[in-house]
Amino acid sequence: MVELIEGTARAGYGAVGLWRDRLDECGAGAARNRALAAGIQISSLCRGGWFCAPDAIARRARMEDNFRAVDEAAQLGALTLVLVCGPAASNDLEAGRREVVEAIEELAEYAATRDVALAVEPLHPLYCGDRSVVVTLAQALTLGVGVVIDSYHVWWDPQLEASIASSAGRILGFHLADWLAPPPDPLNGRGMLGDGTIDLRRIRRLVDSAGYEGPIEVEIFNPSVWALDPAEALELLGARYREHVAG
Amino acid sequence: MVELIEGTARAGYGAVGLWRDRLDECGAGAARNRALAAGIQISSLCRGGWFCAPDAIARRARMEDNFRAVDEAAQLGALTLVLVCGPAASNDLEAGRREVVEAIEELAEYAATRDVALAVEPLHPLYCGDRSVVVTLAQALTLGVGVVIDSYHVWWDPQLEASIASSAGRILGFHLADWLAPPPDPLNGRGMLGDGTIDLRRIRRLVDSAGYEGPIEVEIFNPSVWALDPAEALELLGARYREHVAG
User: I need a labelling partner for B113 at 20 to 30 A (CA). Which of A24, A181, B64, B139 fits?
Assistant: First the structure.
């Protein structure tokens, strides 16, 4: 975690997104201090959500964990807490979607008391069965909080242009990864910018046109990227960003 | 092919869908005669489509192949020629989608002269990069021909109920397979009815409510299903249909 924060700052980036499962390594307070010392912003904390559960007791435990995620985001001074909304607890997908609506209403009240912004990240429909019942940007916009747009998750959507325009003022994060076709792995088969089928520049321009001026996070789940030397990975993604995204 | 036609008839089913890549085994005329003799209807021919190509010459070759597919469907007396529309020839997804619109306009004129019904099958967005730029039922409905609804491809769609209702009168096929989460393979990881996350009965009822009364095809790309004894596979899917789909 410390290596990530300081390495990202050293490579000249202005912000870094953190994941909760790695936060335990040093704690939210220490992570915030390291980021302040390095002069880098914490763009987001991933992730709250996973609201659905088979019974009320299990759902309450999930909500308590989300309250802790809000507290951690507040301690970090993260701009956004990212919510991944699912999967459903049974094959009743619509029931799962109703649980998400109710949970976000409750969590938003708590987040307001901590001054933490919530953002729903719609995931690719590939994940509807095991990660998120929210699978389009249009659907995410019905949930009343902010949204995170990830090129990997939304690029296929015939309504993308209209949905991004409708997101104006509510975009709290913008993630980039490319789509490899066919995906070499359902979860960890995402592509380095420029290696896949997505017109990343078009999506960046749409997000620009919607008025988004916040950080852009590159989020690539792929063992071949993780195997790179961290400084080399940061340099590569900078070069790919300039080639395939900027301008 | 002959084994499929006769085995399906023997198991008591009233219709069977055929694939073009296996049609060469016996030819369309012979397949039709076998089906007539066995008293079974040929519900559909899979597939036309794959319209997009990097240049006009290649696109023309694809169109010629689609004309042949229409001719084969006519020879078979198949109710429908199923179209799989993609992928795009480049990272310009919207250009690929425009090519599909133009190609279907041309193919529909030809199909009308052969009295063959065309139906676009929207594929799961998982396939947007390598198989189909048409990824939702709502999008398929804009293309002016019929549609095929496959539970595996559409189950995740937040607009599913409305889109199926809008399909009334244009549904020319209904396919069933379950979704395994996460998919064990991007192409051949589809599930036997009841093994996955889809509320198949709900989708069948929606399709019923839209007035569809044609054949229901079970289409499961999965080596573990293909490894079954054919008669056993037909019996298993009948049992699963009664348990998870009928009623």
Answer: B139
Q: Which of B52, B90, B91, B92 to mutate to test the interface with A (most CBs of A within 10 A)?
A: B91
Q: Which of A93, A156, A179 sits opposite B135 (nearest CB)?
A: A156
What confidence tens digit (pLDDT) does each residue in B121-133 have?
Answer: 999 999 999 999 9
* pLDDT band at A211; cut points 50, 70, 90: very high
A158–B138: do the CB atoms touch at under 8 Å? yes
The candidate with the shortest Cα–Cα distance to A45, out of A119, A153, A115, A108, is: A119
Selected from 1.10.3210.10, 3.40.190.290, 3.20.20.150, 1.10.3720.10, the CATH number assigned to the domain covering A2-244 reads 3.20.20.150
CB within 8 Å: B91 and A182: no
Q: Which of B129, B135, B181 sits opposite A181 (nearest CB)?
A: B129
Under the banding of pLDDT at 50, 70 and 90, the label for residue A207 is very high
8 Å CB contact of B158 and A97? yes
Quote the CA–CA distance of B51 and B28 in Å, as a whole number.
23
How do strand A41-49 and strand A80-84 relate by DSSP bridges? parallel
Per DSSP (E only), the strands in A85-230 are 118-120, 146-150, 171-176, 178-179, 190-191, 216-218
ipTM, two decimals: 0.97
Residues B42-238, CATH architecture: Alpha-Beta Barrel (3.20)
